[in-house]
């Protein structure tokens, strides 16, 4: 592969300050960098986003008084001691244990921003609550390496917690994001006393949908997350204060560092020093879906998991697709019939850090939904635990899907996913050859292109030094770097490197809920490039709200394990997986599909050279062609739900 010239540690692709709503250019240079002014991290993982004193609320407490013991040690099988805070209800009865294993600091326990109730609150409902720091983070001993120890340590911690005084021997787990991963990795080991898990906003695969997506590197998630959340706290755990302060200083210029190539020489993480962030450089090294990733992926191990699972997901979450796949996979392949019958999925209008509500800093369009969008997770978890750990016949639903329909702003239920009765509907791309730049030339229609109909291709130029800025989407983890969630796309759609295809106004309310697929016939002048697709709801006033998106790296078009270059100028049929959504396209609204070749910094810009910025700084311009004639019927397939309308569903989140 062409590695190109190497300029170690220099910002060869630093993005300018136009990330949010740039119209025509985002220039990758070594100057003009807009510094991110987010606060530096601390030994506890950094200050939480601002929240009012209303969270966590004290209402809804249970009957038990609670005592707390901090830094309780648990010895793992290799002798390493992990430490936990234990919240013990004052009761003579033996009670179930609720365990959280976190890399973000046990004292924080994922309470902020407006996510979970406090451990003490859960313990007041007469549960023994244990919040443990994972290996090598905060109060726990050992060396931290992402994912590596969570299976065996999870098993040992579950069995240790089950033996705590006052425990009845039944253990459940909870937590979101990486704390969801600690649950899946523990469950794969089948600890005998683990009876249920409640993973939220987490993935089925730590390669595709976590570190990479469609072959592209998830730059906007991976780099800031590691810089902000896990590298400094692990350094503090080792008392390596020099690295701790250095990485926090570097994070102030995180946008500059995200624009620095090659990634395998990422200077803030000290390449070659195995103590700082060895996992990051392994992620860059293992660019394909090989055994490095498969050993951990939940989707590879559902047969080993034979317990009920309550999954939570958000329509704009960074791990939405994986959360849905975890539910689907367990329904089909869980390790026992009872487990397969006790799988439930809840999907709300949430992004990764704003999902808890009501005081979290969600995207403005999500905040405007109001109380119907509030997360029911705390009350639902209690009902779930009461049933599965205490044996209460409390009417809790044990299976199926609760989902929020945006546009209608209603909660609805279904027995399975995708929804029964889904009408898979093809919308074909069309134009007179001028769809790029939102010239109103591009069309979407349920009528396929005819053989006798002229359908000239659309063309645009993709320059990796000037990629399309990310405006919202299923990103993570801070809006200070790049927006997440729904945003108006009108300005960004004026760029000449985005081909815009818009349908006619809807003649009736139409619900679209489920996975989305784009079949794109396209050619490039480069040996490798990217193709992106974004589904948009266009309001009568022109507001264009992104619903979800997807990407495929051309060389990964057939396989994530064996990428192959493309032949310049040759037409290929690409399948782009747009992540799921649920939206009511109201009468008068229009369906839109945006096609482009970059989405920065959500993904690393493809340099069009056959290499990538993980190992090279070389870049070249690509000339792109999108075809939509009878021989090349490019289309988006939408999951239309018959009879979906404004009046159907509930105005309040599910409680049980």
Offer a few descriptive terms:
656 residues; eleven-stranded mixed β-sheet; 12 helices; 23 strands
Topology:
Blueprint: E1 66-75, E2 81-89, E3 95-102, H1 119-123, E4 128-133, H2 150-162, E5 167-176, H3 178-187, E6 194-200, E7 212-213, E8 216-217, H4 219-237, H5 241-251, H6 254-258, H7 278-285, H8 291-294, E9 309-316, H9 320-333, H10 337-340, E10 343-351, H11 364-367, H12 377-388, E11 400-405, E12 410-414, E13 423-430, E14 442-445, E15 458-462, E16 499-503, E17 510-524, E18 530-538, E19 544-553, E20 572-585, E21 590-596, E22 622-627, E23 635-641
Give the overall form: globular
Give the rounded overall mean pLDDT.
90
**Distance between the amino and carboxyl termini:** 54 Å
Helix proportion range: 10-25%
Query: How large a portion of the residues is in β-strands, by DSSP E?
Result: 25-35%
Content-based structural category: alpha/beta
Q: How many helices in DSSP terms?
A: 12
Outline the biggest β-sheet: 11 strands, mixed
Estimated radius of gyration: 24 Å
Ranges where pLDDT stays below 50 over 5 or more residues in a row are 1-52
β-strand number: 23
């Amino acid at each position: 592969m062409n590695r190109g010239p190497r300029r170690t540690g220099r910002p060869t692709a630093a993005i300018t300050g136009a990330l949010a709503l740039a119209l025509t250019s985002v220039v990758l240079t070594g100057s003009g960098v807009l510094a991110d002014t987010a606060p530096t991290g601390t030994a506890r993982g950094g200050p939480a986003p601002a929240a009012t004193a209303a969270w966590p609320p004290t209402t809804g407490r249970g009957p038990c008084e609670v005592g707390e013991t901090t830094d309780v040690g648990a010895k793992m099988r290799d002798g390493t001691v992990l430490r936990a805070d234990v919240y013990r209800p004052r009761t003579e009865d033996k009670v179930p244990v609720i365990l959280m294993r976190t890399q973000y600091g046990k004292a924080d326990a994922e309470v902020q921003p407006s996510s979970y109730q406090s451990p003490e609150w859960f313990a007041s409902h007469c549960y023994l609550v244990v919040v443990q720091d994972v290996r090598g983070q905060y109060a726990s001993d050992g060396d931290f390496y992402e994912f590596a120890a969570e299976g065996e340590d999870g098993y040992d911690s579950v069995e240790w917690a089950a033996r705590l005084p006052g425990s009845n021997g039944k253990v459940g787990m909870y937590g979101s994001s990486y704390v969801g991963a600690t649950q899946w990795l523990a469950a794969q080991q089948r600890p005998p006393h683990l009876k249920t898990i409640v993973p939220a906003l987490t993935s089925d695969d730590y390669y595709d949908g976590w570190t990479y997506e469609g072959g592209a590197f998830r730059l906007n998630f991976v780099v800031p997350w590691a810089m902000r959340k896990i590298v400094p706290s692990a350094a503090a755990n080792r008392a390596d204060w020099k690295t701790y302060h250095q990485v926090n200083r570097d994070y102030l210029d995180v946008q500059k560092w995200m624009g620095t190539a090659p990634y395998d020489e990422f200077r803030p993480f000290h390449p070659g020093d195995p103590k700082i962030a060895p996992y990051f450089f392994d992620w860059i090294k293992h660019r394909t879906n090989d055994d490095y990733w498969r050993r951990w992926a939940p989707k590879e191990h559902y047969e080993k998991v034979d317990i009920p699972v309550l999954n939570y997901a958000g329509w704009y979450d960074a791990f939405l697709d994986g959360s849905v796949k975890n539910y689907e996979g367990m329904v089909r392949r869980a390790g026992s019939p009872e487990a397969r019958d006790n799988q439930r999925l809840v999907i709300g209008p949430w992004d990764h850090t704003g999902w808890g509500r009501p005081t979290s800093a969600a995207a403005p369009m999500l905040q405007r939904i109001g109380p119907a969008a509030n997360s029911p997770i705390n009350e639902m978890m209690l009902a779930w635990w009461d049933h599965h750990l205490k044996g209460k016949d409390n009417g809790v639903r044990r299976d199926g899907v609760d989902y929020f329909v945006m546009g209608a702003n209603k909660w609805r239920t279904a027995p399975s996913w995708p929804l029964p009765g889904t009408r898979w509907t093809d919308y074909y791309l069309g134009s007179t050859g001028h769809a790029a730049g939102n010239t109103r030339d591009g069309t979407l229609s349920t009528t396929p292109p005819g053989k006798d109909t002229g359908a000239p291709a659309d063309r645009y130029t993709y320059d990796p030094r000037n990629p399309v800025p990310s405006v919202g989407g299923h990103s993570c983890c801070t809006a200070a770097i790049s927006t997440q969630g729904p945003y108006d796309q009108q300005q960004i759609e004026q760029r000449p490197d985005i081909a815009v295809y818009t349908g006619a106004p809807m003649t009736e309310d139409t619900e679209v809920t489920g996975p989305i697929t784009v079949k794109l016939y396209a050619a490039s002048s480069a040996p490798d490039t990217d193709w992106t697709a974004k589904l948009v709801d266009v309001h009568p006033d022109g507001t264009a709200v992104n619903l979800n998106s997807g990407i495929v790296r051309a060389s990964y078009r057939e396989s994530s394990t064996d990428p192959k270059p493309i032949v310049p100028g040759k037409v290929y049929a690409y399948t782009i997986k747009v992540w799921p959504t649920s939206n009511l396209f109201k009468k008068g609204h229009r369906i839109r599909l945006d096609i482009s070749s970059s989405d920065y910094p959500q993904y690393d810009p493809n340099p069009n050279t056959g290499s990538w910025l993980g190992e090279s700084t070389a870049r070249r311009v690509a000339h792109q062609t999108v075809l939509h004639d009878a021989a090349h019927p490019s289309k988006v397939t939408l999951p239309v739900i018959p009879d979906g309308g404004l009046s159907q569903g509930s105005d309040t989140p599910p409680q049980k």
